[in-house]
Structure formats: structure tokens, C-alpha cells
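Practice problem: predict the structure.
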Amino acid sequence: MSRVLITGSSDGLGLMAAQTLSEQGHAVTLHARNDRRAQDARAALPDAEGVLVGDLTALAEIRSVAAQANESGRFDAVIHNAGIGYREPRRVETVDGLSHVFAVNVLAPYLLTALITPPDRLVYLSSGMARGGDPDLSDPQWTARRWNGAQAYSDSKLFDVLLAFGVAARWPGVLSNSVEPGWVPTKMGGPGAPDDIDLAPVTQAWLAVSDDPAATVTGRHFRHLRERAAPDHAHSERAQDALLAYCADLTGTPIPAPATR
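Answer:
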């Protein structure tokens, strides 16, 4: 049995992955952004070991979620599932003055990774749209550019792959990988999404717990249980280093190196 934490798991793919893992006999901890959604999560998965509560748009609450996680004991795996989609019609600014999309999709998994006791496995949810992402960090908060929600999302999902691969390089004792779940009909994907929703949570759950040799790798990118070529720039050490340094500057919290147990 493994202990697995899944962010953004009060509904959607996060909850589906949690249900899959729970049915397999693993101990799953959910995460919700507020108390109301935490109640919904508990109702949806009564067998969950616990529910962490915190709004990942705010740095202080991200730190609170990390503290709650550490207080509950070390996890064997963390699935960074929480995310904001590409349909925001304008730039939304968080309480910390950051782009909403960047804060939730990139900075939250970065800071949680830096603060939570390192697990054996880390899984970062990316997207096929990462292939259109730009690793340039001259204006990641979209303060100087005209807002483009689809591009901001694509960039953030490329950053998630860079984060997964950057952590893999720094923490050789941790399996750190990224996943494309497919374009599926969730709240984020929309009702017209063409991919099979039943396949969407499978790969991240598999990477979190499986002893299959294909799953016990690191610094790889997956879709539907198969390794897939990573998006452009993902293997660039320069791009990885630049993103991790940028996030460390924003948060005042670098990724510990090497990982400690």
C-alpha cells in the first residue's frame, strides 16, 4: 500500500485518480481549495485518508497545504493535478500580484515540491498544449503583453514538464515524471473534448504506485501508459535551471538539493 497525495482532487481527474488508487487499496489524501469543496471531496470518496485544504492561488495557502501534508506524515507519491484551464478571457491577478494561471499551474507545484518532505515519486500533470508552449521567462506574469489565455496555459504546461525534469535531475532518488492526460470532457476540457475520459486518470495513478519497470523511471513524459516524446525545450537544462531559479526568486524557497529522507 502506498500513501498518495493528489492536489486539486475534489472533482475531475484528480478525484478520478484518487478513486482508482483507493479501489486498488492505496491510502489517498485529497486536496480542496476551501472547506465547502473539502466536504464534497469527503462525500465523493469516504475512504480517503484525509483532505488538505488551501487555495493554491495564494502563496501563504500553498505553504499551509505543504505544512498540512508534512504534519500528516511522509507520502510515497504526490500527484500535482491542480490546474487552471485556457479559457480565462483576461489576465486575473492573485493576491500576490501574479498571473492566476502561472500561480496555480506552475508556482503551486513548484512550492509544494520544495516544501513537502520528498516522496518516492512525483507526477506533474501537463497537457498536449505544452507542445505550443514557450519557455521564455521575460514576461511569465503577462504584465507587459496583451493577454492570451491559450498561450499562457500552453506555457504553464510546458513549465510543468520543465519542473518535472528539473526535479528529476536534482533528486536522483525520486522518480519525477510528467503526464498528458488527454483532452477530455471535464470542466476544464469542455463538453466537446474528444478523448476518452476513462483513460485520463490512469497514467498518473500508475506512475504513482506501479512496480512495472515502465513506470519506475524518471525524467520522462507519458500519455495513456506509454512514454511519449517530451515537448520542445523540455530536456534543456538551461530552461529547467531558469524556471527553477525564477520560482525560487518569487517564493524565496529553492528546491532543496539533494533530497533528504
